[in-house]
């Protein structure tokens, strides 16, 4: 599946197409009307051979909706990573207030989680140890995550870098997903920072 990617990678950024279902197994109504792409069940996501892309010491950044936190932790374990912490994306309006257009069974979600896990013994780089775990930005088109995450990963984790289920090309990253022609490696946008070499 990922044979064309030049693994191993030191950092993986993954935004799986999570399937939202209720207790009876039906797709939640608000997600059915928003369906814009094919989704995968948690067992299907967990079965992806992501561990084959990871270096022996690797960081994983895994996007998950709040309601699927237990599923995401299960996926992280299945891929061979240990959960360490998370970053919270707080979605704001133009005026800086909470963007209350989110969906949810119990509350209107204005946050999304970016779980951070490791394989092997791998601390974040020095800038990561100064990084707060809150990202604030305006929501863009459906499911698109903030572009600032790429810089955050590059500051906090050693490369090389790979994104799965990519939506846009990013220089210096290998990417896989149906919105970026399956797989590609885009030339680096700048020389690697000192912290990322070695």
Write a short abstract of this structure.
This protein is an alpha/beta fold. It has four helices and eight strands.
Describe the overall structure.
An eight-stranded mixed beta sheet has the order 5-3-4-2-1-6-7-8. The protein has about 200 residues and is α/β, with parallel strands linked by helices. The C terminus is likely disordered. A hairpin with a 4-residue loop joins strand 7 and strand 8. It is about 15% helix and about 30% strand. The chain has one domain: Rossmann fold (3-Layer(aba) Sandwich).
Q: Please, what is the CATH homologous superfamily?
A: Vaccinia Virus protein VP39
Structural class: alpha/beta
CATH topology: Rossmann fold
Which word captures the global form?
globular
Distance between the termini: 29 Å
- What is the mean predicted local confidence, pLDDT? 84
Order of helices and strands: EHHEHEEEHEEE
Number of helices: 4
How much strand? 25-35%
